[in-house]
């Protein structure tokens, strides 16, 4: 059996996406440029445009993000808020893409739409598994998203000193009861 070698275009696309994720995370959507992303990937800016067509399309491709929500069915019901807050802290602190997407979402409609898609498409099904009334699922998932995104904005984008200084267990202690209420009350 022969092992297929990756096509050069696949390698180039991967380099562009990696550079874009880092650049969007460090500079935000508005300040990141195709030219800077291309320089980071060691390619010509025309190649970025050839593969992605526009900065918005590149951002949408770079912002593919899986929240990797835990299976909440096996979680003790009284600990749902705690588990979700801890999970989101891990996700925000372990991947710069979410911070880049949040920064961009504040000022760019395409990025805001991408963030809405991620949270609606991934958080709503998790909430649906916990909610007896299907009509409440969008509201409950939306409220969880407001809490998580608001906290993330304060801690990771605006870097509010008292919020940044909070240790993990304290963040969980403050946020978990609210998330718990949104999911189960």
Structural notes for this entry:
The protein is mainly alpha-helical. The chain has two domains: 8-62, Orthogonal Bundle (Arc Repressor Mutant, subunit A), CATH 1.10.10; 72-184, no CATH class. 74% of the residues lie in helices and 0% in strands. It is built from ten helices and no strands. It has helices at residues 8-31, 34-41, 45-52, 55-62, 80-94, 96-107, 109-128, 137-157, 161-164, 168-184. It is elongated, with a radius of gyration of 19 Å.
Largest sheet: none
Shape: elongated
Computed CA radius of gyration, to the nearest angstrom = 19 Å
String of helices and strands? HHHHHHHHHH
- State mean pLDDT (0 to 100 scale): 88
Task: Count every beta strand, where a strand is a DSSP E run of 2 or more residues.
Answer: 0
Spans where pLDDT lies below 50 across 5 or more residues: none
Distance between the termini: 57 Å
Question: What number of domains?
Answer: 2
Helix/strand/pairing class, anyone?
mainly alpha
Can you count the helices? 10
């Amino acid at each position: 059996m022969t092992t297929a070698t990756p096509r050069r275009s696949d390698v180039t696309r991967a380099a562009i996406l990696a550079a874009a994720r880092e650049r969007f995370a460090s500079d935000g959507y508005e300040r990141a440029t195709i030219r800077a992303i291309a320089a980071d990937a060691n390619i010509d800016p025309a190649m970025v445009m050839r593969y992605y067509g526009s900065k918005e399309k590149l951002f949408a491709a770079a912002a593919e993000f899986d929240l990797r929500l835990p299976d909440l069915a096996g979680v003790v019901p009284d600990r749902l808020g705690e588990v979700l807050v801890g999970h989101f802290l891990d996700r925000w602190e372990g991947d710069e893409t979410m911070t880049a997407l949040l920064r961009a979402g504040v000022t760019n409609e395409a990025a805001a739409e991408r963030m809405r898609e991620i949270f609606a498409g991934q958080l709503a099904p998790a909430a649906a598994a916990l909610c007896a009334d299907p009509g409440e699922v969008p509201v409950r998932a939306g409220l969880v998203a407001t809490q998580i995104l608001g906290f993330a904005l304060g801690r990771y984008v605006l870097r509010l000193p008292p919020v940044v200084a909070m240790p993990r267990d304290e963040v969980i202690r403050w946020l978990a009861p609210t998330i718990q209420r949104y999911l189960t009350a």
